[in-house]
């Protein structure tokens, strides 16, 4: 049973160091009572197995199928559910600014224990929001990651890491992206079964309102 007064519909997955109060993920949780931030015991030195176990426990506790909203390393955590027993409980995932583990290791050496970059195709619908100048994810690797995961990729231009430092506080466009992902679930034109589609910011409104 859920541990809040509201049924949890969406799990929010922060990345390294968690998301501070001004981050769009925390705004999202405050603005949407059916959302919950997945808290980890150690935000400073992420460990893949520890974080994944915590996520699986939370999904078990909630009891119903959920949507995921990941940022940075939280996206990598979501991708690690591909081969989990709970993959079928994920209705879809909005994956914002996924980080490349090699690039992240260069920027934060010896603190992230996440192993290799997940490459398995995700068995659930996913929309990947990326940036053209993200220091944590070169564009070529972003495209390769989206192809591997079988997700739909939307770049929003030069947006850095889509975090507070790059000007994303209460990012209401993010809410809209999830709403559009939810409304597209199950439609043939927006399904993981048809392979990866690549959208640019210039045509996002057209492509995501199928």
UniProtKB/TrEMBL annotation:
GO terms for molecular function: hydrolase activity. The keyword Hydrolase applies. InterPro entries: AB_hydrolase_fold, RBBP9/YdeN. Keywords: Hydrolase. This is Serine hydrolase family protein.
């Amino acid at each position: 049973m859920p541990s809040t007064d509201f049924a949890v519909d969406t799990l929010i997955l922060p990345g390294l160091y968690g998301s501070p109060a001004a981050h769009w993920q925390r705004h999202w949780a405050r603005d949407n009572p059916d959302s919950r931030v997945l808290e980890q015991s150690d935000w400073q030195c992420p460990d893949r197995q520890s974080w994944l176990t915590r996520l699986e426990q939370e999904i078990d506790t909630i009891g119903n199928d959920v949507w995921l909203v990941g940022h940075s390393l939280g996206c990598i955590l979501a991708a690690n559910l591909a081969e989990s027993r709970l993959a079928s409980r994920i209705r879809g995932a909005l994956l914002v600014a996924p980080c490349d583990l090699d690039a992240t290791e260069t920027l934060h050496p010896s603190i992230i224990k996440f192993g290799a970059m997940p490459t398995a195709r995700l068995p659930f619908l996913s929309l990947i929001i990326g940036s053209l100048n993200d220091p944590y994810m070169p564009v070529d690797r972003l495209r390769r990651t989206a192809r591997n995961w079988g997700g739909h990729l939307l770049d929003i231009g030069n947006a850095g890491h889509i975090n507070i430092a790059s000007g994303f506080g209460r990012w209401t466009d993010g809410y809209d992206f999830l709403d559009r992902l939810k409304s597209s679930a199950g439609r043939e034109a927006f399904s993981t079964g048809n392979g990866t589609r690549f959208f640019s910011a210039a045509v996002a409104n057209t492509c995501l309102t199928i």
